[in-house]
């Protein structure tokens, strides 16, 4: 009886995969092809929804897809199957059943196809081979698939595990090879094929198995049992090491070779191969070969010259241990053959250029022992490496050579401006600067110290609220026309992290939302379209989350569609969610709070959206005039005057006050002197008016008070406002301690006055602290850069709360267990030369210097270099913060040594500051000495040699107590014994740099004041 | 590309290398010979060089570095790439006692070139030209075994095995060359021509800097900045710094830097591309990085305006004819010989670069003649944005909006909307997401190109 497409459609619709197989049973190819179109259409349709939500919150595979897969596989051509992709291949059992019945000509090609993919179908191909449906594939992908399979990630589709796979996933390699002995022939090819993607012998044994279940364990066992010849395994593994495989993958072969435990005779037979491997570009391979060469050389000496030549590449290796091991062998060679000592010394000189001090030291010891200081060639070679030699070694080397090194090369970029002249020039420049700026920058004291050759490197004493802060090069230019606004909105929608662009568009919408020319809809079409497109791609909603990007979408959509949208709390996938209906479309998303928005920036944007939908233009009081969220005082005053007594939105008002820049306040006060209204009064108070503050509304007067004097308690307001929390009327007092470093949140912040239980959401300064101490109910900002920039823009004068939050987050993720790429944004404002580094900022910085993620650590190092260079940070401040952290065990000291080493490099001033910080930090006494303390001590030793300044008596006392003979103790002893003092010329160099940096700062402030 | 080969210009070109033999080391009675098989170019199997490597180990290291770039996949997941692109061999150009080996990473983000100067080899330059050269895994392994004490002959091509046209080919390697790979390979030259040297450090400092680079991948770009007598990787933009993203791409230099006398770093601030030039006494190793690992050199659209304008078209044949496999092309000399103004010659050289007919040598600061052994003539017309713009023009999907003394406004059809292209003070802006995202830094969008063509056409009709 002939079968019809309707019957097939019915079977697919019911999801009867087994019936589909039966449907095609016994059918010839031409008959099968008549169903190809129907099957393909059904497959493509069901592929669109592979997963179905049967009941809310419960998901399962679409049964139609399983049936359609069987159907396409039963009747489509091979080229069609390839084009349909991996989902068109059924599970192994059905696949074999269908192909056994169908027996197409393309089975061999199909087997290769099954293997040549991200998730190769090894079990299917082996089943095809066993069923005689295909030959053994010859391509490398067959071996890679074998590795893939042995990693236990074989066939797993449609929620069903094939029975054979179920048993095999727990089966080790040894068992597998013994059960399928034909695979033993393939083993030798594994030594010739590197692997592919994430599948290789190395990956298998590292991530999947151990013992006999691993490849190396299984092969060693097979060799022991005599199943695989030992000699061939030894040779094959050595040959693999010379095939240019990638480092990770080639490591397996050296490990395996050593697991075979070759005897000294076996090694000697292969001596040439080991010697050749010394030149391997893969450091671990070279190290492996070095060990073997060392063993052989102890038994049967190599030819001296040949060995020295072979060791040369290792003497410049990055790996310290390898260089030191090579130097040891060289030492033995030189002792054995005195005639070869000269050649060996010339080879050893290369190691003097190594970046590690202890390697240089080992090379120098070698030279002292075997080299001749009279040898011209050797002296030349040493002088070429002179500038790389560590400061602590230089004097010894000079003493040995009995000659100074050649002329010192200049830094490739001077750390300070070319304008720098002598002291007289500096004094002349300083004289042109008004006293207030000189005082705040500490210019006069620095010049005095310079004149007296006195080392005094205290940081500049400004607090940031008394200096001009606005960067004239980073002004946010207001949008003037509707067309400009459209272009700016289109651009802002594409740049998620640009917070300034977000604020600029909000300001534009606020002022221009009443402009609706006849072709408004048409002009706004692309932006409207894009907003909807972006919204449909995510589960985030405007205002209810805390991403400024989506707030912007909400505002623009409300403006364009004249509808601010409606929000409703719903259940979505059985979870609380928010439903957002806008411009005829429905969007759903999850939110922190489904009842109302909590993010202050979101609430402010929502209020603007409501106004824009009504086309009511108005000034946005808090729109920043400069990068960083700053609002120029005079501009705010003009906005207040223009607004007159109209109602000011609460969050907008608070933000406007907190964002007030320090400059131009008296001028601003004059502008709004006669403006009436609550906000104008608060604004006057913020600008420094002598009138008394008021008790209500608390949130407004707290913001005004904080804007007026961010670092002081407002005693007049304290009496009116009770227990509002830290940084309300009272200045915050913050401290930290390090708790259990093994727990998630090791940094504990303590603030006084304490945080209140109930908090008015408009008290933004208090909310910043609530977030900083990690109140789970507070979601001021999160991981993304724009969100953090938003939080930083709330109160740009006083960043301590945001820095504290940043410090907590960096401390939680020091070892980068979670990829929070946005966290580096916390360091960005610290680069601002006018932001004083107070306690929390320093804590953030010092934690950043120990971060594992190179971006975070690099940025913290940049901040450190900049802050030392512009005199915001001194050694005492840095050292004190460090001394409170490292004894806790939270810090990986090698990371500090690395970043502080870089921070010390740009100039003598930097070196001296870091030396001073380390000196102070190491005076702390931990309960237990960390294992990596030697890294920090080593850096201090180098800096002590470089600067000529010995350690302080307190640190000397602490270090003198170090016992034992470990590396840290040896360095500590050296530090304790070191005496001396900085040379006058070095002090002059440092103090000149210090004075110049202060003058540059004061000149900048003066110029800003003049330009204003 | 032979006519028999299929070409699928929508994504990739199926390309077959047909070598007479596999490149490798051949044992000789005294030493060994590094035999490199050639295919393609003016001749099928050209013979370029027969001679001896004077510093064989260093030469081998440089060639291994080059192959590291060929194998590198800095962005696309390896398995995916393995399907898209089987390893594409380097090309070698022989001229004026110089051998230049060029290669491009599989992910299209990194270009590398090894220049062997006359001091690197001793022998006879038999031919001039450019050809593919077979690099394979056994050859790589053999290169790793070369020592400086070895006596190593080098032959690029082989006279012994020279077969007649149509005779049997022994080795055939089929690869799919994605168009963006091919386009990147040719367009990287015009990027280099815009670069200026920013930093230079001695070899020892270069080694220190390269070893100090983070081993872990990081998402954000860094800036290489001067620090004391050396270099440092900063995370903040710096006036004297060079921006580099995908810092792992520099790892190849770490192995080679100990051989170098100095490292020179070049950059073009507009395109944010950077180049690193390791200077060895007898050779150079150039590494050119795209602005991000996920951005190739193709598709940046820097040459689109030049290609669209076409002032150079008349000069192109004469400039091309004036070249004779010069290792250094002197534009002044070309200007004199071709009779065209220097600006036109420069534009023609840039267009020749886009056609794969010249390379750029940062060391000399000049173009050099080489003709890539691929048929790249189709690339010029196959610029997706140009194609899109032409289509918009053909389908009359552009209309003029407001026109004032300060600005011209055109509306160009997009997907379901009309994008507004606004010309203001010579700069064009568009409301499409692509332009909004890149703000013209990656060349004009198709709407702006279409608007430009439309306005040009209108001007043409008017005149």
Overview of the molecule:
Chain A has 52 helices and nine strands. Helices cover 55% and strands 4% of the residues of chain A. The termini of chain A are far apart. By secondary structure, chain A is mainly alpha-helical. In chain A, the strands form four sheets. In chain A, strands 5-6-7 form a three-stranded antiparallel beta sheet. In chain A, strands 1-2 form a two-stranded antiparallel sheet. In chain A, strands 3-4 form a two-stranded antiparallel ribbon. By secondary structure, chain B is of the alpha+beta class. Chain B has 14 helices and 26 strands. A nine-stranded antiparallel beta sheet of chain B has the order 5-11-7-8-9-20-19-18-14, with helices on both faces. In chain B, strand 15 and strand 16 (230-234) form a beta hairpin. Chain B starts with 6 loop residues before the first strand and ends with a helix.
Structural class of chain A: mainly alpha
Cα shape of chain B: globular
Helix content of chain B: 25-40%
As a whole number of angstroms, the C-alpha radius of gyration of chain A is 36 Å
Helix count from the secondary structure assignment of chain A: 52
Alpha-beta classification of chain B: alpha+beta
Main sheet attributes: strand count, strand direction, barrel closure of chain B: 9 strands, antiparallel
Count the helices of chain B. How many?
Answer: 14
Q: How do the strands line up in the largest sheet of chain A?
A: 5-6-7
Return the average pLDDT of chain A rounded to an integer. Answer: 88
Write down how many β-strands of chain B occur, each being a DSSP E stretch of 2 or more residues: 26
Q: What fraction strand of chain A?
A: under 5%
Instruction: State mean pLDDT of chain B (0 to 100 scale).
Output: 82
Which descriptor suits the 3D outline of chain A? flat
Radius of gyration of chain B (CA) equals 23 Å
C-alpha end-to-end distance of chain B: 43 Å
Oligomer: heterodimer
Question: Into which percentage range does the β-strand content of chain B fall?
Answer: 25-35%
Structure summary, number of beta strands of chain A: 9
